[in-house]
Write a structure and sequence with these properties.
The complex is a heterotrimer. By secondary structure, chain A is mostly helical. Helix content of chain A is about 75%, strand content about 5%. In chain A, the strands form 2 sheets. A two-stranded antiparallel ribbon of chain A has the order 1-4. In chain A, a hairpin with a 2-residue loop joins strand 2 and strand 3. Chain B is about 75% helix and about 0% strand. A two-stranded antiparallel ribbon of chain B has the order 1-2. Chain B is globular and about 60 Å long. Helix content of chain C is about 40%, strand content about 25%. Classes of the chains: A mainly alpha, B mainly alpha, C alpha/beta. Chains in contact: A-B, A-C. At the A-B interface, helix 4, helix 9 and helix 11 of A face helix 2, helix 5, helix 10 and helix 12 of B.
């Protein structure tokens, strides 16, 4: 019983970080209709910026917001330069549907190489600012440590803020409208291009947060090819797809679900089957709902 | 101008000639190049599987590495547990992978675009690590896949690597010839129809799901063959040999080759093998630091990928053909 | 003359969708643009609102050129375009769709005022103000689209086939509302319609397009009485 609860905690914590990554991917998808694999690369880059901040100022608490800001800036820059370029050269034929995906794959490689140039491929370390030791309840240790608690709180705060921006502000309305109906938004006087860039900036910030939290939640090791980031890339994307790429709520639900499933498989079945469990979960959901859990239209064509 | 029509027979002859050329090539270059040649042949098969699936049938797969793994493990298991002859191992790899491909294709038939990409990505991440769990699959170390020494009839000087090269090249030649025939047949046209005009195709009586699943199955079979070839060249099968980056590399190679024609497949294959060498040479020439040296190949491949997608999106072969066709059209229109 | 178009040509690929079109619409008047399918009416509107690029010719609004200006900036110059089809965002509520039109003004008090004005003109929208737009009927959606355009406090209103797909009774209501709006808000209106009779009946000025060219310009009543126009477009 206790183990089940602990597993639940582990799953929720991991899932909440994937939720940030999934949101990052959904934000970009909704505004630009592109699955951006480079998102994880940008998150990685932001985390390295956070690392540098820690080296300079020895403060994780300073590094976290700065990583998010740098994430926002990098994302906006990439949208302005790279995406506009891509859209201008949009192609026909077989490649048209996957060209953007492949291009972002290339961008991911470039970012990783760039990181390797500057910081090298060996692990660097980001120390978790809070204890990773679980709280004790009597003789048992809870799978909830101060750091994990912070992660849960931080993600919740970010999600609530994001929801507020989206639902209650004019900018949020503009973001939603531009994602659903760009032409109508233009004709309503909305600067759709700027709004799209802003959407990317939000995505970049979310990615930066995900990177920083993921590193602290793990063993603190940071490297271009680290397992943590491959997981963030893969699971963030998978969570977004499970939830339905068009829905931010779906991203969160999908990520939490994924986190829980992975945690339970890890604890009760075995470590190596964790990844295939992710696959089975994804397939299972897509069979029933081909466009994700929270999808408006059945079998939505991309 | 006399137009040279390529008939089946003439193409068959060109494949034979190509085979002969490869034999000479194998004898002419050094061991390293021969080994690389085997890898190139492997990539040719692997990339062609993506061209079939994505270029012709319009389904994107970011997880073909998993299908390569399936074929490789199938081949190794046949070899180790049943002492199967080498050719049978490869056939087994093809069939085994094709079977899983059919299953995957059936699941994927209803999905499109990013949803399909996500599913294949999950497979790429998930499948290879299964091997860690089961001892008969060799766990993390993996299994040995030893195809044995070259036959004595080829002489004492015939190296192991050259034997790899011969086998891989033969497999590549046979599968490319077969695939090219397939793509030129009614099947190829059907796949193209489904990709470009699926509604019209359906109205014309084409069974969309079945067509897609068939493409997936065949593509998987080819991938399985490539996987077996890959394992042959490194003599092992393990999860580590099929990382996510392999799947990405294959997608890259397919784009570099020109995603919807088979003609350019050698370009992508050679590029994938050549880039690390070229990058090394550049890095040494400019006396770069270790950081640069490790990451230069990745940077070059990625940059090349971006440039290709932007400027030569349908691949160099298609681009060339299109340019020739436009040129031809201009010529005929000015011939009033 | 607040809207002045001179020798405007717009291409669709190789085809001249709009071919040397010239027209002038006085301030505060409602001009109906009629013609059969493919006559270039929609392309004309889309070019005026900045969605399409003209090949040649000039477009002047209030004395200033509007060529090459982005749609979102033209809204700030007082031009609102309600495009063809149900031009609402289905996933948003009625309120959100309306507010969309006023966002750029950045004044929430004014926006609220405009919202009240619109719900007065179209009471049905007021009743459904918090509902998602995809639950509205065809006529209500058209009202919503027009309402949203009004929220931007335009001076020039471009309407593309508002009657499309609507029941006759609803069409009458819509046309009447358009007529009223033109007067009460002192708008200049360009009304593109295939429903030629309905459009001409509420219009001051009529322009007939065929294959991208202007074939007739006159005051609306004269066109209604013109036997050639009657035969071709009014069905009798």
């Amino acid at each position: 019983m206790f183990q089940a609860f602990n597993t639940f905690l582990i799953g929720i914590t991991a899932g909440s970080i994937y939720a940030l990554m999934a949101i990052s991917i959904v934000l970009v998808w909704r505004s630009t209709r592109v699955v951006n694999f480079a998102q994880a690369g940008m998150a990685l880059l932001s985390t390295y910026v956070g690392y540098e901040v820690i080296q300079q100022f020895d403060s994780y608490w300073l590094a976290l917001p700065l990583a998010m800001i740098s994430g926002a800036l990098v994302a906006a820059l990439i949208e302005l330069v790279f995406m506009r370029l891509l859209l201008k050269h949009s192609s026909q034929g077989a490649i048209a549907s996957i060209a953007p995906i492949i291009a972002t794959l290339g961008l991911l490689g470039v970012i990783k190489a760039f990181i390797g140039f500057i910081w090298g491929n060996q692990d660097v370390n980001i120390e978790s600012p809070l204890s990773n030791v679980g709280f004790s309840i009597g003789s048992q240790t809870l799978a909830l440590s101060p750091m994990k608690l912070f992660i849960l709180i931080a993600v919740s705060v970010l999600l609530i803020s994001l929801t507020f921006v989206f639902q209650k502000t004019n900018l949020g309305l503009a973001l939603r409208a531009s994602a659903h109906a760009p032409e109508i938004s233009r004709l309503s006087g909305i600067r759709v291009d700027f709004v799209r860039t802003f959407g990317w900036a939000l995505a970049g910030a979310a990615g930066g947060a995900a990177g920083m939290l993921q590193t602290a939640n793990g063993n603190g090791a940071l490297a271009p090819d680290s397992l943590e980031f491959s997981l963030l890339l893969a699971f963030g994307f998978i969570a977004a797809v499970i939830g339905g790429l068009d829905s931010l709520l779906g991203a969160v639900v999908g990520a939490l679900l994924l986190g829980l499933v992975l945690a339970f498989v890890l604890t009760y079945v075995g470590g190596s089957l964790v990844f295939i469990a992710a696959f089975l979960l994804l397939v299972g959901i897509l069979i029933v709902r081909p466009a994700g859990i929270i999808s408006q239209r059945a079998g939505r064509r991309a | 101008m006399h137009k040279f029509k390529s008939t089946n027979k003439s193409r068959f002859i060109s494949f034979i000639l190509l085979g002969v050329f490869l034999v000479y090539l194998g004898n002419a270059v050094d061991e390293l190049r021969v080994y690389q040649g085997a890898t190139v042949a492997m990539y040719v098969v692997a990339i062609s599987s993506i061209i079939l699936l994505t270029g012709y049938s319009g389904q994107v797969s970011l997880g073909h590495g998993a299908l390569l793994a399936v074929g490789a493990y199938g081949a190794a298991l046949l070899r180790n547990n049943f002492n199967a002859p080498v050719w049978l191992c490869f056939v087994g790899a093809v069939l085994f992978a094709a079977m899983w491909g059919a299953l995957l294709g059936a699941t994927a038939a209803r999905l499109s675009g990013p949803y399909l990409a996500g599913t294949t990505l999950a497979l790429a991440v998930g499948l290879p690590s299964i091997a860690n769990q089961f001892t008969f699959l060799g766990g993390e170390q993996g299994l040995i896949f030893d195809i044995g020494l070259p036959p004595e009839s080829l002489g004492e000087m015939f190296s192991q690597y050259k034997w790899f090269f011969w086998i891989a090249s033969l497999a590549a030649l046979i599968s490319m010839w077969w695939l090219q025939n397939l793509l030129r047949s009614r099947y190829g046209r059907t796949w193209r129809a489904v990709r470009t005009q699926s509604v019209a195709a359906e109205l014309a009586g084409i069974h969309i799901a079945r067509t897609k699943i068939l493409a997936f199955t065949i593509s998987a079979g080819l991938a399985g063959l490539a996987g077996a070839l890959l394992s042959m060249t490194i003599s092992t099968v393990s999860p580590g040999a099929f990382p996510l980056t392999l799947s990405f590399a294959l997608a890259t190679g397919a784009v570099l080759s020109g995603i919807n024609t088979l003609g350019g497949v050698i370009i992508g294959a050679v590029t994938l093998v050549a880039i690390p060498d070229i990058a090394d040479a550049i890095a040494h020439r400019i006396g770069a630091s270790e950081n640069v040296m490790t990451n230069l190949p990745g940077l070059m491949v990625s940059a090349l990928l971006i440039l290709t997608v932007l400027f030569v999106p349908n691949g160099p072969v298609e681009q060339h053909r299109a340019r020739k066709a436009r040129h031809q059209a201009v010529l005929t229109s000015t011939k009033k | 003359m607040s809207l002045n178009v001179n020798n405007l040509t717009v291409h669709h690929g190789a085809i001249r969708a709009v071919d040397q079109v010239s027209l002038a619409v006085p301030t505060g008047k409602l001009a109906a643009i009629i013609g059969s399918n493919g006559a270039g009416k929609t392309t004309l509107l889309r070019t005026l609102s900045g969605l399409n690029k003209p090949t040649s010719g000039t477009m002047n609004w209030m004395g200033e050129s509007i060529a090459g200006v982005k749609p979102e900036n033209l809204v700030r110059r007082g031009i609102s375009h309600v495009s063809e089809g149900k031009s609402v965002v289905p996933e948003l509520t009625v309120r959100e769709n309306l507010l969309l039109g006023a966002i750029w003004r950045k004044n929430s008090k004014e926006a609220k005022q405009s919202l009240d004005e619109v719900t007065t003109i179209f009471p049905r929208l007021g009743e459904r103000i918090e509902q998602r737009s995809d639950t509205l009927s065809g006529g209500e959606r058209q009202m919503l689209a027009i309402g949203r355009a009004i929220m931007a406090k335009p001076k020039l209103l471009l309407l593309d086939e508002p009657s499309l797909g609507l029941a006759p009774l609803v069409i009458e209501q819509i046309f009447q509302s358009i007529r009223d709006l033109t007067h009460t808000m002192r708008l200049t209106v360009l009304l593109v319609e295939q429903n030629a009779m309905g459009a001409l009946k509420i219009a001051d000025l009529g322009i007939v397009l065929n294959l991208g060219k202007v074939v007739a310009v006159d005051n609306a009543q004269a066109l209604i009485n013109d036997p050639a126009v009657r035969a071709a477009y009014l069905g009798y």
